[in-house]
Amino acid sequence: MKSARDLDDEEQLRAVRNIVLGQEREHVLSAIESHARDIVGAVVVEALHDRQKQNDDLSTVFVPLVEKSVEKSVTRHSDQFIGYFYPVVGKLVRKSVAAFLSDVLEKTNTLLENSLSVKGLVWRIKARQAGVSFSQYVAAQTFAYQVEQVFLIDANTGILLNSVARENHSHADADMVSGMLTAINDFVGDSFAHTNNQEEQQLASVKTDDFTLLLQRGPSLVLVAAVTGQAPAQVSQHLQITTENIHRLYAREIEHFNGDTSPFERTTSELRECLVEQLNTPDKKRRPWFAIIVLGAIVLAFIFWLYHTFEQSQLKQQLAMLDSSPGILVRSVTAEGLTDVSLQVLRDPDSQPVSDWLAQQGIRDDRVLVEEKPYLSLERPLVERRIARVVARYPAISLTPGPAGFNLEGQLNRTQLQRLTNELAAIPGVSDAAALTARLDLIQAPTPDRQQSLKAMFDFHAAKIDATQIEFDAGNSDLSERAVSRLTTLNQQLDTAVRLARQLQLSVGLMIMGASDASGSTSFNQQLSQARAQAVRDFLVSQGADPDYLNAVGLGVVEIDAIDGVGARKVMFNLMDFTPEARKEERP
Amino acid sequence: MIQKKICLLGASAVGKTSLIKQYIEGVFSDKYLTTLGVKVDKKQVQLGPREIQLMVWDIEGIDRYCGFQPKYLRGASAFIIVVDHTRSQSLQEGMEIFQLAQETTNIPAVLVINKTDLPEQWHWTEHEVETRSHMFADCFRTSAKTGEQVDAMFQAVARLCMAD
Ligand SMILES: Nc1nc2c(ncn2[C@@H]2O[C@H](COP(=O)(O)OP(=O)(O)OP(=O)(O)O)[C@@H](O)[C@H]2O)c(=O)[nH]1
Ligand SMILES: [Mg+2]
C-alpha cells in the first residue's frame, strides 16, 4: 500500500520528468528517433553474433520466422521452385536407379557366367572370336532361349529361399542378388508409383545385353528367372503358375517364415521345372533342288572344261614338238574352240608332210587345223634330200654315208662331172659343191686318135650292116635259111656297132626297111613289105638285140635296077646316127 | 539355414557402409562414396551352437533429399540407427528416422554412435544421449575405422534377431 507522501513524491517526480523528457517523453524520443537507424545499423550484426554466442534463444526466435516465410514463398511460387529443383532431383533419381541396377546386374552376370561349365567356356571363346557378347552367342547358337537360373525369394525380406541352376552350379552370391533384386523392386515400387493408381508398381523384367531377369511376384514370394536369349511369354506364364503352386503348397511355411529357408528346399523340383529352354533347331528347309542341279551342272561343266583344257594343252605341247622335225617351223599353236588346236607352220616342200607327222604321232588330224606356208630350209637333212634327188639322175654314182654325212662315189667323165657340180652348187644350202664331188672318179675321155679309130670301126660295121640284104621268096615274108645266118651275123655286127656308138656318145638306131616286087596290088605289097621288115626285127629281138634300137618300116614296092627288073623282094638295113649336131661339136 | 534380414539406417555419411565393410571384410577406407539405393551383403554368424546368416541391408543415407522408405524395412528382424558423434544433427535425424520406423514396425532397434576414434563434437549432454538410447534395445559406441565394438554390435543384433 502506498502512503499519501509517497503519492506526492511520485506526482512531483512525474512533473519533473515531464519537464525534462517532455510530455510522453517526446523530447528524448524525438532525439533518439533521428539517430535510431544509424545506431542500430552500426551494431546489429555484432549484436546478433554476441547474442547467439550466449545461447540458442536467438535461433529459437528466428527459425520459425524464417521457416514461415520460406513456406509462404514456396507455396506462393511453387511452380518456380519445382523448376529449380526438377533438374537436380531428376538427375539424382536417374543416377540412383542406374547405380542400383548396374550393381545387381553385374552380380547376376558373374553368377550366370560361373554357372556355365566347360561347354560355357567353349562358347565363350567362340563368342569372343565372333565378336559378340557371350550370352548373345549362346542365345543365337544354341537356344532360342534358355532359363539359366531360378530364384525363389521371400518378397518381404528379400531372403533367397531356394535357387536352382543348370548343371547344379549354385552360386554363393545368389542370396545377395536376391536381396538386391527385392530392394530394387521396393525402390521401383516407391520411385515410380503412380499417385492416382493405388496398385504398387512391380518390376517385371530387367533386360541387359547378356540376359534378362524375369520377375514373377506373388503375395509373399518372388520368382525370378535369369534367361539368356529371347524369352517368350510362355516363360512368364510358366513362372506365374509355379509361383501360384508354391504359394498354395507352402502356405504354412510362408506364414511361419522366420528366416529358416530349409522348408523351402523341397521346392527344388518345382523350380527345376522352370529351367526351360528351347533348342534353336534350324527349321528344316526344303532342299533347294534347283540350286543343287544348277550347281551340279556348273561343277560338271567345270570338270569338262578342265579336262578339255588339260587335253588341249597336252595336244599343244605335243604339236610344239613338230618344230624339231627338219624343215618345219612351228609359228604358233593356239587353242581353237574347246577341243581343237590351230597350228601354223612354215614347211619346206622337201620335208615330211604335216599330216604324215601327225599320223606318226597318233594325233587325229581332225583336231588340228593346219595352216601351212612354204619356206626353204637349209637344214642338213633337207639339203641332203635335194642332193640325193640330183644324184639320182646320174646312175653311175651313188650316195654313201661318210664322215661328213655322205660321200658321192662313182665314175663320171669330165663333162658329166662339170654338169653335176653345177647342179649341186645350185642347191640352196650347198656351199661347197666341189668338195662333194671330190671323191668321184673321173673317166678319161678317149683320145682323138682312139676316137677316130673307134669312129672308123663304127663306120666299118655300119657299112657292113647297111650292105646286108635279106631276100625273100615271092609273096612271102618267111625267113630262109640263108636269111637266118645272115641275120645272125648282122646281129653281131649291130651289137658291136652299138657298143662303139655308146663309147663315141652317139645315138644310133637301125632302120629295118622291107620291100616287095611290083607283082600284086599296091596295098598287098605294102603289107608284105611291112611284114618282111617285122619278121627281121622279130628275129633280131629274139637274138638279143635291144628293141629300142630297131625300127621296122614297110617301104612297099621299091624299084631297083636289078636283075629281071622286077623290083626287090628283100629287107635292107641302115644304121642311123641320131646324135644332134650340138653334141657332136662338144666332142673334143 | 536360418537367414535374417537387418537394416542400417541413419543420416548421410555417418558410417553405415563403413561399419558393414569393417564387419564383413575387416577393412576401412577414408574415401567417402555415398550409397545409392540399397546394397545387400551377407555374413554368417555363430550364435552358440547354431549358425545364422545375416542379410545386411545398407540403406542410403536418409536426409532432406532422400526420404525414409519404410518398405526397405519389410521383413527385417532388427534395424540399426547409426549416428555420428561429430555431428549434432545426426542424432536428431537418427531419432526422427527411428520414430518413422516405429510407425511401420516393432522389431528391435539398436543405436550406434559411430566414429569414436574421433573426439566427441556434439552438444548433446551425456544425459540427453542416455535418455534417447533407452528407447533402443541396445546402444553401442563404435569406430568403423579401428573396428572397436563393431563385431560386438553386430553379434548383439544377431542375437536380437533370434530373440523372438
Ligand atoms: N574416423 C572415422 N571415420 C569414419 C568412421 N566411419 C565412417 N567414417 C568416414 O565417414 C565417411 C562416410 O562413411 P560412410 O560409411 O560412407 O557413410 P554412410 O553412412 O554409408 O553414408 P551414406 O551412404 O552417404 O549414407 C567416410 O569418409 C568414412 O571414411 C569412423 O568410425 N571413424
Ligand atoms: Mg553408405
What does this structure look like?
The complex is a heterodimer of chains A (588) and B (164). Chain A is an alpha+beta fold and 588 residues long. Chain A folds into 3 domains: 118-189 and 200-279, Beta-Lactamase (2-Layer Sandwich), CATH 3.30.450; 299-374, GMP Synthetase, Chain A, domain 3 (2-Layer Sandwich); 380-583, 60s Ribosomal Protein L30, Chain: A. Chain A is built from 20 helices and 16 strands. In chain A, strands 1, 2, 3, 4, 5 and 6 form a 6-stranded antiparallel β-sheet that branches. In chain A, helix 4 (57-76) crosses helix 5, helix 5 (78-114) runs antiparallel to helix 8 and helix 17 (448-467) runs antiparallel to helix 18 (481-503). The longest helix of chain A is centred in the N-terminal third of the chain and has 37 residues, at 78-114. Chain A is rod-shaped. The termini of chain A are far apart. The relative contact order of chain A is 0.04. Chain B has one domain: Rossmann fold, CATH 3.40.50.300. Chain B has 164 residues and is an alpha/beta fold. Chain B contains 4 helices and 6 strands; from the N terminus they run E-H-E-E-E-H-E-H-E-H. Chain B has helices at residues 16-24, 88-104, 126-133, 150-163, and strands spanning 2-10, 38-47, 50-59, 78-84, 109-114, 138-141. The radius of gyration of chain B is 15 Å and the shape is globular. The model of chain B has no long low-confidence stretch (mean pLDDT 92). Chain A binds chain B through residues 89, 92, 95-97, 99-100, 103, 154-160, 175-176, 179-180, 183-184, 186-187, 189-190, 258-262, and chain B through 1-5, 36-42, 52-53, 55, 57, 60, 65, 69, 71-72, 74-77, 161, 164. The complex binds guanosine-5'-triphosphate and magnesium ion. Magnesium ion binds at residues 16-17, 35, 58 of chain B. Chain B: This is GTP-binding protein. Chain B: It comes from Alteromonas halophila. Chain B: InterPro entries: P-loop_NTPase, Small_GTP-bd, Small_GTPase.
